[in-house]
Amino acid sequence: MAWATPDSYFEQMDRWLEMEGEAERQRMAERRTRRGGNPERTGETIVNLRLVDHRTGLAGRYLLSLGKPAGERLPMNRLKVGSPIVISDEDRLDAAGVPGVVSKRTPTDIQVAVEQWPDAKRLRLDLSPDEKTRLRQAAAMARARSVNGSQARLRDALLGLHEPRFHEERPVEFVSRLNESQQEAVRFALSARDVAIVHGPPGTGKTTTLTELIVQAVEDGAKVLACAPSNTAVDNLLERIAPHSPSVLRVGHPARVLEQLRSHTLDELVEADEGTAIVQEILREAEQLMRGASKPSRSHRGHAYRSDLYAEAKRLRQQARLMERHIIQQILDSADVICTTLTIDEELLGDRRFDLVVIDEACQSTEPALWQAALRADRVVLGGDHCQLPPTVLSKEAQREGFGVSPMERLVNRLGGDVFRRLTVQYRMNGALMRFSSDYFYDGQLTADVSAAGRRLADMPGVDAPDDQHPIIEFWDTAGASWDEELEPDGESKRNPREADWVKLQVEQFLAAGVHPDQIAVIAPYAAQVRLLRNRLPIDGLEIDTVDGFQGREKEVVIITLVRSNRTGEIGFLADERRTNVALTRAKRALRVIGDSATLGGNPFYALLLEYFQQEGEYRTVWELDSIDF
Ligand SMILES: Nc1ncnc2c1ncn2[C@@H]1O[C@H](COP(=O)(O)OP(=O)(O)OP(=O)(O)O)[C@@H](O)[C@H]1O
C-alpha cells in the first residue's frame, strides 16, 4: 500500500490502531464474561493460581511468582514475557483487576510485575488489551507527523516518499567470518543515509549480519539502539552482540534468563553499582522512621513528632529515588548499544538519541510499532523476511484493509532492490530440503553452505538411519482415507485425530532410531491439534507447537501435521503461504509432512508443494501403512 503524504499515512494508522484496540477490548470482555467451558482453552487466561513467591523490583514494583496448586504445569498459553495482563480475584471477576506485565516464565510458574498487591487467594491472569503500548505508539506517530529537518527526511524515506540515499560504500574489516552476501549487506547498510533493509531468508544468518553491522557502527563511534518486536528476538540479538561489545545494555524484561544475558540487564547493572548500596541504606533508614512513626503514642507532642518522622521518611525516599534515577542515567549514558523491544520505555530513555537504529524481525512489526524507535536516529536499518510470519493483527477488518503488512514488506514492495540486500547462503537445511522454499519465495537464489548441503539423519552420532544419500523429505497423503478434521469440543480450533495417531508413530520411529526428543519438532497450524498431540505425547524435551512457536528456530527433524481434511477444499489460514514456509524451513535433516491432497491440492501453492515432494523426496500414502486402523 502506498500513501501520498505523511498525513494520509498517519491518519490511516491512527484508525487501524483504534480498530485493533477495540478488537482487543472486545475479546477480553468476551473472555471474562464467558461462562462454562474451559477458560484456559483460549491460551489467554490462566485460572486457579496461587502466590508462590514475591520480591521487590526496580522502582518499588512487586514481582509476584504465581503457580498452580501442587506445582502443576501451567496450561499452554500466550502470556509471554512483556505481555500486559490483569490479575483478578477468581471469585470476584466483576471487580476491576490489578494491571501488570509478565516478567518471567517457567513451565510451572509465571512471574508478573505489578504496582499494586492483589488481595486474593485464588488468582486468575488474563492477557489484557495493551492500552499503554497503543498510547505510546499513537504519541510517537503524532510526533513523527510534525518533525522536521533530518527526522522528517528519515520519516519520508521510511514512508517510501523518496528514494533511499546512500554514501559510497567503504571497505570494512569484518570481525566475524561472513559470506559474500552477508558482507555485501553489511557494507550496504553501513552506507545508508536514511534507511536500508537486510532481507534474511531462513537460516541465512540475518542476526549474525545485523550483529556485525552493529559492531562495525560502534567501532566507528556510533551509539546504537538495537530493537525487535518480541523479547525473545531482542535476547537473540543481545546474546550475539554481547561477546563483541561489553557495553551493551538490555532494558525491559529479558525472556530468556541466561547468565550471560542477565549481567547486561539494567536491573543487574543498577544492583552492581556502588551507589545502590547507599540508596538501599537510605531506604532502610526511611523504613525505620516510618515504623517509629506508626508506633502508638497518646501525647499531644507525639502527634507533631510523628508527622515530622513521616515527612523525613518521605524526604529520604525521594532522595533515594533521585539517586536511583541518576545511577540509571549514568548506566544508559555509558552503553554503546541499548537493546529493547519496540515498545520503548520513554520515561527511562527520555529524549535520548542514537546514531543508528537497527530493528531485527522487522516483518513482525505493525506500522505504528515502528515509530517509537525510528524517531531516535537519522538512520534506520531493518532486518527480516517478509516471506515468513507477518505481524499478528486481531481486528479482522483492519487486517482486511491491510494492517497486516509490515513496514519492511511495504518498503520492499514499493522500492524493490534499491532498498535491500538479500542474504543468499543458508546454514540450516540440507540442499534438497531448501529447494522448494528457495524456488517459490526467493527467486531460486538460496544456496546451502557446504556445512549444511549434505546433512543427513544417518550422519548424526548414535542415530541408526538408512545410509541413504538423500535427506528424509516425505509427504504422506491421506486422500480418500477419511481422516477428517474435526472441531475441538467447546472450541473453535480444528484438529485431526488420525493425523495425530500418525504423528505419534513417526515420533516413536525417530526416537527408536536414536534421535533425541529435543531434536524433534512437531508443528501443527492449529492450537487444538497441538493440545491433542501434547496429551498423547508427553515426552520430556519433545517440542510440539504451532508455527508461531517455531519462527526463528530450527530442529534436526520436523514433523508437520496440516490438519485440514474436508470435502469442500476449505484450508482456512493454511492459505497463508508464509506460515507454511516457516514450518517447512525449520528442519536440518528430516521433514515429514502429513496432509490431504484432495483438500489442499486445489490451492496452487499446495499443488506445487505436492509436486516438489514427488520430485525431490518421497510421496507416500497412508494406505501403505500396515493398518490404517491404528
Ligand atoms: N557466515 C557464516 N558462517 C558460518 N555460519 C554462519 C554464518 N552466518 C550464519 N551462520 C550460522 O547460521 C545459523 C543461523 O544464523 P542466524 O541465527 O544469524 O540466522 P537468522 O537468519 O537470524 O535465523 P532465522 O532464520 O532464525 O531468522 C547460526 O547457527 C549461525 O552461526
What is the percent of helical residues?
25-40%
Strand coverage percent? 15-25%
Question: Number of DSSP strands?
Answer: 23
Name the CATH homologous superfamily of the largest domain: P-loop containing nucleotide triphosphate hydrolases
Strand order of the largest sheet: 9-10-8-11-12-7-13
List the bound ligands. adenosine-5'-triphosphate
Mean pLDDT score, rounded?
90
CATH architecture of the largest domain: 3-Layer(aba) Sandwich
Low-confidence stretches: none
Q: Main sheet?
A: 7 strands, parallel
Structural class estimated from helices and strands: alpha/beta
Which shape, going by the Cα principal axes?
globular
> What's the helix count?
21
Cα-based radius of gyration, to the nearest Å: 27 Å
Feature tags:
seven-stranded parallel β-sheet; Elongation Factor Tu (Ef-tu), domain 3; RNA binding; Rossmann fold; EC 3.6.4.12; single chain; alpha/beta; 4 domains; 39% helix; 630 residues; binds adenosine-5'-triphosphate
Task: Put the structure in a nutshell.
Keywords: ATP-binding, Cytoplasm, Helicase, Hydrolase, Nucleotide-binding. The protein is α/β, with parallel strands linked by helices and 630 residues long.
Explain what this protein looks like in three dimensions.
Its EC number is 3.6.4.12. Helix 4 packs across helix 5 (206-219). This protein has 630 residues and is α/β, with parallel strands linked by helices. A hairpin with a 3-residue loop joins strand 4 and strand 5. The relative contact order is 0.10. It folds into 4 domains: 40-129, Elongation Factor Tu (Ef-tu), domain 3; 134-247 and 336-423, P-loop containing nucleotide triphosphate hydrolases (Rossmann fold); 271-331; 429-624, Rossmann fold. The longest helix has 35 residues, at 300-334. The chain is built from 21 helices and 23 strands. Bound molecules: adenosine-5'-triphosphate.
